[in-house]
Structure formats: structure tokens, C-alpha cells
Amino acid sequence: MNLTMNLHHGRLDATPEEAGYRQEALDRLNKLFEGLILDRKIQGASYLLARGGKTFAHASMGAFRHTGSSGDLQPDSIRGIASITKWFTMVAVLTLMEEGKLHLTQPVKDWIPEFDHRMYEKINITHLLTHTSGLAPDLGYLLEPYPAGWWDLEFAFAEDDSDDANGEKPHLNRKEEIAKRKSQWIKAMLAGPPVCPPGEQVNYCTAGYVLLGEIISRISGQSYEEYVYDTILKPLEMEKSFFTIPESLHEEVCVTNDWELGKLLRENAPAWAVPRSGGGLSSTLEDLNRFGQMLLNKGTYHGQRILGRKTVEMLSRVQVPGGLPAFGWGECLKDSEFALGSSLGRRHDPFKPNTICHEGAGRCALMVDPDEELVVAFFVPSTENWVPESMISVKNVIWSGLQ
Fold first, then answer.
1. Each residue of 247-271: pLDDT tens digit?
2. Segment 384-389 long-range contacts (CB within 8 Å, at least 24 positions apart)
3. Residue 364 CB: number of other CB atoms within 10 A?
4. Structural contact between residues 269 and 72, judged by C-beta atoms closer than 8 angstroms
5. Which domains does the chain have, with CATH numbers?
6. Among 81, 160, 226, 285, which residue has the least CB neighbours within 10 Å?
């Protein structure tokens, strides 16, 4: 292989041949990444491929940061995984389901009283997990020319703190203050009419996952972040996965712009802040592989059971046979089929419909193919909004190497 940039290799358990994978496909993958980096479509690229529980490809190339002399992206670099965080939220919800503390058709209003209104009372947990709640989708999903988010409306729902009849400011204890502040952002998320009744369309809605994080917190009595750490990250020994990255590891974090760099130095959020359940986790390829192997192994990894076998089998199940309309980002699908919190393999993909995957803005992906016993994780850090070759073409090349 004749690359013009450094190719760094991570820890391996097997050779491609031993894993039933062709080296030529890895060569094509590296060449594809090299071209995208040289064309400045992506800043760098790293990937990990594991089959039958054994890592047979783990490499990186390109720049670690957008700043001039940052060095190279490494196979073990930490990177924000954006919406892949939603998979951890999904698993957290399912652990509560297995404990009998919620069921998937249960109305959201059972925990969040702001939903106790005729416009929102029929929205349930599955609607939030599958982006079919009818709540306003993410910015730009409908190609609106002047997008505005719920955070732009939060100020409108601040409660009046004016003096009471005796000319005194109302006194709230800390619990009341937290509830008041949380209600403010919840109401902002519900502002305006729903875009459709629940269960009629797919409208990708990160706010729905934020609300799931709040439900997890209210049921468990912990913050969402603490619950995910205790039930998923710690038992899987995902030691380099964080919602707040320790200062001692800041130099290991890949960033693509000054905003991401500054985010490392921001203080922890207050107790009433929105849960980081829609996209707040940072991780490494090896840690994501641990999570993917747990799903591949029907809920267990190295003796630690996170979910039951039958629960994991639900994850590949089409929720609405025949699909629903999904008019997002100009794609205009009339029969989008989806699973609980996951995308599924589609007709034009080289993997079967029971392959589950999630992508993250920034960009990155985690995929689990049960038929091939394959887990795929890759980072393609970029400031570009969408580079199809770095996501779609990468998947096609990877699956082409299976023997």
C-alpha cells in the first residue's frame, strides 16, 4: 500500500484472513479515506472492524485536530459520538423495562405532566424511541429556510417571579427550583402544534431522546448520565467514554473546530439542565466495539449482562411493517422501515435488514450485523454537513471484504 500519509494501527486480535476478510477491501478502504482527506472533505478517519468477537482491522489516518500542528488522529483517540449516544439511551430505557418500571406503550404523561394535554397525551415511549411522536424534528429536517430550535423559545416559558400580594419574592426550595427550571425547557420542546399525530410519520427528533433521558432520571432517581454510567459504561469497562471528559484526557480528544475545543473547558451543567441523552457522549472505537459486542452477544459482554436475550432480539424488529413516511432532509421516503432507536439495513445496502446501525453528526457510525457476527465502528471527523462518500461508500467498501 502506498499512502502519502501516515497509517496508524491499533490493537488486533486476529488477521483479516483469520476473520474471513479480504485484505484488498481494507486497501480500498484506506485509499478511499486518503482521497477524502486530501480533498479536504474530512479531517481524518479511523475505523475498527471485529468479527466473531475478534478485532481484525483497527487503524487511523489524517489530522487529530483542525489546528496546524496537532499531529495525527490515533486509533485510540477520543471523539464525540453525537447521536450514537441515543443507542445508550435506548438501552437504558430497555433496562428499566426489564425491571418492570415502564413499558414501551406507556404514555409519556405518566412521568412528565406537561404531556397531559390532548395534543400530547397519546405520545408514548416507543414514539420517542422511534422518532414517531409528532414533536418538532431537528433543525433543517424539513428543509425549512429559517430554522429555530426549542432553546430559542425557552425564555418564553420562564415563570413570573414578580412579588406576591405582600410584596415579597416567592421562595422556592432547591427541589422546587429544579422542577421549575426543567418545566421551562420541557414546555419549549412542546411549543407549537405537533407536526403530525403520533405514529403517522418519522420525524427525526433529538428532543424526544432528551425527554427519554429525563424519564430515565425520574424513574431511577439518578441523573441520566449517572444511570448510564452505572448500568452500561461501568459494567462494560468503557473506561474512555464520558459525558464530561476529565481534564487529564483533553489532549486525547479529536476536535474539528474551535467550538468543539472550547466545549472541553465548559463547566458542568446545573441540575436542571437538559439530559445529554440525545448526543452528549464521547468515546473511542474500542469502547464502542465493547458496546457493539454486547448487542451482538444478545446482551452480554465478558460475563456482564446488560440486557436479556429476548430484549436484544427486539432491536432488529421492524416496528411498523410496510414503513411510514419520512420526509426528512429531502429524502421523501414513503415506506421508511425502522427499529427501536436504530436504522435497519435497506434494499440498497450490502447488509441484511436485521443489521442495526446508528450514525452521529461529526461524523461517525456504529453498526452490528448479527448474520456476519460483525461489529463496525468508524470516525470520519469533518466540519462538512454531509459527505456521502465518507458514510455510504465506506459501508459498501467494508461489507465488500467479507468472505
1. 999 999 999 999 999 988 876 778 8
2. 384/41, 384/42, 387/36, 387/41, 387/42, 387/363, 389/32, 389/36, 389/41
3. 24
4. no
5. 8-162+172-400 (3.40.710.10)
6. 160
